[in-house]
Amino acid sequence: MSIVFFVLILIIATVFSNALDTKIKFLPRAIIQIMMGLALSFIPNFNHFNLNPEVFMLAIIAPLMFYDGMNTNIVKLKRTLSNTFSLAIGLAVVTIILVGYLGYALLPHIPIALAFALAAIITPTDAVAVSSVTENLDLPNEVMLSLKNESLFNDASGIVMFDLALTAFHTGHFSPVLSIFNYLYVFFGGLIVGWIVGWLFVRLQLLLLLIETDIDNPNIIVPINFIKPFAIYLLAEMFDTSGILAVVAAGLIQSTQAQSLRLTSTKTQMVSKTTYEIFTNLMNGFVFILLGVSFPTVIYDITNEGHQVSSLGYLILVGIILYIVMIIIRYLWVTLKLANIRIRPADKVLNHFLIAINGIHGTITLSMAFSIPIVLHGKIFPFRNDIIFIAATVIILSLLVPSIILPLMLPAKSYSYSLEDISTYRQKMIEYAIKRVHDADEDPVETQAVIATLRSQQSILQRPKRNATYKILQKCFNLEEKLLQEMVDNGEISVKQQTFYERMSLFQSFQLHQSFIQHFMYRARFYFIKLSHRFKRRIKRVDPLVVTKKFNNARDELAQVENEISPQIFAYLREHLNADNRAEIHWIEEYYRERHRRFQNNTRANEIQEELFINAFQNEYNFIQEQLGKKNISRELASLLYEQVSNDEWVYMQNDSIYA
Prior knowledge:
Layout: H1 3-23, H2 29-40, H3 53-70, H4 74-79, H5 81-106, H6 112-122, H7 127-133, H8 141-171, H9 176-207, H10 218-238, H11 243-256, H12 258-261, H13 266-304, H14 312-335, H15 348-357, H16 363-370, E1 375-376, E2 379-380, H17 384-409, H18 419-439, H19 444-456, H20 466-489, H21 495-512, H22 516-540, H23 544-575, H24 582-598, H25 605-629, H26 635-654
Antiparallel strand pairs: 1-2
Helix pairs in contact: 1-2, 1-13, 2-13, 3-10, 3-11, 3-13, 3-16, 5-6, 5-8, 5-14, 6-8, 6-16, 6-17, 8-9, 8-15, 9-10, 9-11, 10-11, 13-17, 14-15, 14-17, 16-17, 18-19, 18-25, 19-24, 19-25, 20-21, 20-23, 20-24, 23-24, 25-26
């Protein structure tokens, strides 16, 4: 299968599963993605799918771990560093040893080295999977912080122990002393390599002509940040250290330099943040979808391989037992204060249980399971599918059990604001800014253009209804006729000007009622007539300056009439605006504004609009600060509104040519 087609299918599946996640609230996103992968496995060419382990670790896991490190609060990590290493190293090593021996007892036919490899696979936890399960639950902050920091480093513990187990299986020799030194070298060597190379990348961004010489461009900065995790991972692996820990350390360095990197432009920061969020969301989706795609193949291979040692039912039972034992080990570890987490005495039992049951497994567990070689010494690697199946069972259990139990134990996540509060204060904020734009007493047309854009923020989710729009528009046309007749009666315009203006209005009204095909045909006819007139002028040798002068005179005549009529049309629309017709009124205002601007030649139009927009955004900021000072809104709601205004401002500044 073409790799491009395969990746495209994975992207579509991830997007579709994310859409389902917004509708299916009782299942974590990871489970939905696994089910999506199972559905894909029935598609031809997806059958008997095998994942390249090296590509998986480099292309998916490395960038995910880098971005996890980059988004880690370094201050909080320093405060909990001893607990983090207790969970990530101490608990991980003890779990691997105990679960390894238990796995060997339950599966005596497999070598003990592979039993320890299985234990190393199912030990690492996944903070992203935890967030997926607890997204709508009020999980204590200290518990979530401990789980997130643990997952940053226990991945490396699992990977190092996994490599040691595979090496022992390949060679048939195991030295505890050498293994300890090798573990320390791989673990801390990865941290050192990641720290050095990550620091060099940050200095490159800050010093090597990227910021100081105004080459602060997202086309340069964003690709450099994308290259980082791949380059650092490969470099660390060249030195036989942990590539995963190296990218985590580089991500943490990026986090520590966040203050300095804020010197980059707003555009670069916005593009970078959005790109990373989309990319990490896709990569996480890929992992669980690939698990679903691979699951049927693993089951098929287990039931058809010649050296099958256990039935599927027994392998599932082994996965259940190992999962329960790991929960017990985690609970005892925090209960015996081997990791001293700051928890109120009254909540200790509950929070210790939460830490135990939220040891959820995901991306690293799956990646290590698939990284078991497919072939060893020219033969199929023994018991590979059994190990993958048990690991997949543990992953699914670790996702399902908390999804069922936690909602019974924890309250739903509460916010200091509701969706209604967001809508209400956003409306008030926009109305506040609109009033200040009115008070500026600038050019009416440019003022209306800015106001219409601000109001579009209120009705962005509404679409104008076609019939309702035409009814209001017809009333506007009737008002135009009335105003034109009054201007003729008062001697302000001639009958010729009135007729010319009415013909233009009638033609545009007719165009609005056309279907797409009719509109296309009239456009084609218009351009044909235009070309034929140009050809006739060339034959008759008509002076183009004369034609241009006639056109300008006609436009000026229309502009004079528009200057009188447009403000009254806008005033009429303002008077009849209500909650039911907001979208329709906005559309009609835009129609009249653009029609009017075609016949204007105001050189200060763009300058006026820019000034009004800047003032409007500043007034929105002032409104938020005022409401926060009066304690009408919480800091969380204020931050959300600040972010929305900032995004609106950035969009305008990057697209100000649209308003020209």
